[in-house]
Amino acid sequence: MDNGEIEGTDDNEFASSSSSKGVGLGVGRKYRPVVAHDTDRAVLEMSSLDPSSFPKKIKVSTQPNSGSDSSERSLPTHVGANGSQRESKLELFGFDSLVNILGLKSMTGEQIPAPSSPRDGEDVSITLERPKITGVKSGTMMGVFVPCLQNILGIIYYIRFSWIVGMGGIGESLLLVAFCGACTFLTSISLSAIATNGAMKGGGPYYLIGRALGPEVGVSIGLCFFLGNAVAGALYVLGAVETFLKAVPSAGIFRGTLTNVNATGVAEPIPSPSLHDLQVYGIVVTIIICFIVFGGVKMINRVAPAFLIPVLLSIFCIFIGIAAAKKDHPASGITGLSLQTFKDNWSSDYQRTNSAGIPDPAGKTDWNYNALVGLFFPAVTGIMAGSNRSSSLKDTQRSIPIGTLAATLTTSGLYIVSVLLFGALATREKLLTDRLLTATVAWPFPLIVYVGIILSTLGAALQSMTGAPRLLAAIANDDILPVLNYFKVADGSEPHIATLFTAFICIGCVIIGNLDLITPTVTMFFLLCYTGVNLSCFLLDLLDAPSWRPRWKFHHWSLSLIGASLCIVIMFLISWSFTVVSLALASLIYYYVSIKGKAGDWGDGFKSAYFQLALRSLRSLGANQVHPKNWYPIPLVFCRPWGKLPENVPCHPKLADFANCMKKKGRGMSIFVSILDGDYYECAEDAKAACKQLSTYIDYKRCEGVAEIVVAPNMSDGFRGIVQTMGLGNLKPNIVVMRYPEIWRRENLTEIPATFVGIINDCIVANKAVVIVKGLDEWPNEYQRQYGTIDLYWIVRDGGLMLLLSQLLLTKESFESCKIQVFCIAEEDSDAEELKADVKKFLYDLRMQAEVFVVSMKTWDIHVEGGPQHDESVEAFTGAQRRISSYLLGMKEKADREKTPLMADGKTVVVNEQQVEKFLYTTLKLNSTILRYSRMAAVVLVSLPPPPVNHPAYFYMEYMDLLVENVPRLLMVRGYRRDVVTLFT
């Protein structure tokens, strides 16, 4: 539906058009286009109905002691912005009107007490609070792409890559790049899927792993990943210092060492910087980087381009130099781009090397493909640099997938091209002996490559020193391990203590001063984290709970499983001993967290898996409420029909079809119940036969569920027993599904109103959600495809149940072609634009595609009298007025004869005529709005108002009849004070 087609008309237009042409609401009406000076097209004015067009109000005198005055005084009031009190025009639906958006606060992670179902006469106040404005936020480029690129593109490329091509040959080097790149690419896909499954707090991969695999696994892998980032910072610092000292030997404070070269054509020995120089300069550089990190995200974003741009320029100069190189120019051993050289370097030539990496038959290091994997893999790590800073990103769901995958593909492409160019550029001897071949061939002079190496490593060190403290602070903020409380930080604050601790670890590794000892440690910790991310996505994708709706669609559980397997294989290829040590460290942390850590329920994937098991699931989940991420609808389908069914059909056929629509891919359980009137001892065998028949019918309808038959004196008592006792542990039904009793007036079934209202009240007391289906006969089966829209009239905060039901409907073939429209009912003095923006942002965070409209209700005066109109809704309204008036007169006459208070349904009632009429106007306006904008909708969902206290059940049925009048297919939904959707992953 185009927004431009929706426009309210003034009262005179409605009166004239409806009286003169007799056109029904929403049929044949032409809407004028919205012009520039109009309000937002999504803001609808329910101005088509005005009290002046309605008949006179009900006038029935009651006894003085009927309590009408006290009832009037107890009407709920709301405090407006100016502090004055006003009556709520949506009080029929309860106090938690969507106008107060935001009851959405409880879905954003804030802990607020669950409100009870308010009734007439209760005073309720809601305190609204705008979200806190946090510090500077980064976008995709500066927040994810640049940090990832700086971390990935580091020292390995400059000083080890050409050597790897010489040792492994072009063929195996391409295989090496593809093997390691596939690992990080698959991990990036898994990371993108999890990161787009909801709002993401600080902590990056730790947050994702912990929320998917549980706090114990999350903390153990998170701490290992923190150590890996801290140690990686030392690796990058040492690489920068070593390059600097080689470029400027005179800067050395201590005397360096010379390495003699054997069995090569190089005559002169190769100088190496002193270990003490590496330590001194490394400590100084680490302290400087620490001060930059202390400046916060704004300072880091300013400094990062200064490190990255010279790096990209140096790579460009390397490619220019390769293209311009000729035989023995700019150095001996350079052949220029030669096909013969390419052929000579295609195969591998693994040799022994000395400590400087120069081939030496007497060397202590023996190289093979596995060793090359361990040496090269740090060149593809760094894909988590953006997610590590998730708390500093504007939009994690957009920035993390785009930035991470772009950086991964960019660097992988660069590595593949470089393998081909280096392999065709120089002889194998030159590749193996010139550790800085990139500087040798760079145009116009080698110094630019030295600058590129230094700045690339310093940039990577900066990103490691930025991400690691935030990761540690996120672990501490989750309050799982009390020993980490020192590193907690407030929202939007910089983790200064964690930064100092990270710098301390980095300095300790710098003092070691050996890159070859540090590299395997970093690699193992990174691979352990990548394995956790892949396993998290694998588990979530395999379970496919209703909360699993990532925006990133290009993922599959098989890809995540392959990615996890690749990570484990690479760990053992590099070093089985380091693999065992890293796994043992993670296991020790896991054991410590399980003993000393505090319990945390994050709705992790293991809990969702337990939920799909039987007895073990119940024992694992306990008796507490299920987390919104693991919430599954368990419908209690009330099969007792309001009327008769064909023989041998124990349940309405379309009820089973509707129950299947409430499940995602058929997962979940339904409980089909029916009530057999009579004495249990006499009807026990009949109940068993009926239960068997119902169970057979459920299997025939291919609906996962169980059948139960309850024997009770009457329907009300039977249902009250069912709603209290049905289910076991967390497998208790949470939604009651039943058919709307459309036949009650047609067949004059006077006992239905009291029974129907009693069932709804029982559900409210038992804290069960309610879904009432009107138009069940027209509900489509699995082969009847629907088109159009699924329209939601979202009036009260229901924990997101109505939104989730609409999403579940879209997963069915019958409704997959439909689109969702959300109509938010607001009062006339609410800020419609702000409400619309909030709802749009809320739906975006929930990964739900829907068009949002705000319907504003104008004030109406129930004292204004007017003549009847020839409108279908108004005719239904006048009929309801007439029947209620007649019912009240009968009650009054009976009370006068028996000299008792007004009685209905066996209890005393207090009738506030003004309130009754207001409720009728509310349902009339809502029905008219539905008919106007949703007449052609595939299905309409609307909030179900609770039965008002002290009103006869007959009145409530009149309200409901007026609400559903002429709507062919309608779902009335009421939540149960529990959130069933959540913003966070």
UniProtKB/TrEMBL annotation:
Coiled-coil segments on the chain, per record: none
The region called Disordered is annotated at: 1-31, 46-83
A Pfam family recorded for this sequence:
AA_permease
Every Amino acid permease/ SLC12A domain range: 143-611
Q: Which InterPro entries match?
A: AA-permease/SLC12A_dom (IPR004841), SLC12_C (IPR018491), SLC12A_fam (IPR004842)
- Skewed-composition ranges (Polar residues): 60-69
Question: Domain named SLC12A transporter C-terminal: which ranges?
Answer: 653-774, 785-984
Where in the cell is the protein located? Membrane
The lineage's top-level taxon is Eukaryota
- Which portions of the chain have biased composition (kind: Acidic residues)? 1-13
Q: Where is the signal peptide?
A: none
Transmembrane stretches, by residue range? 140-161, 173-196, 217-238, 278-297, 304-325, 367-387, 399-422, 442-462, 497-515, 521-540, 561-593
Cellular component per GO, a single term: membrane
Q: Which family does it belong to?
A: Belongs to the SLC12A transporter family.
Name under which the protein is recorded? Cation-chloride cotransporter 1
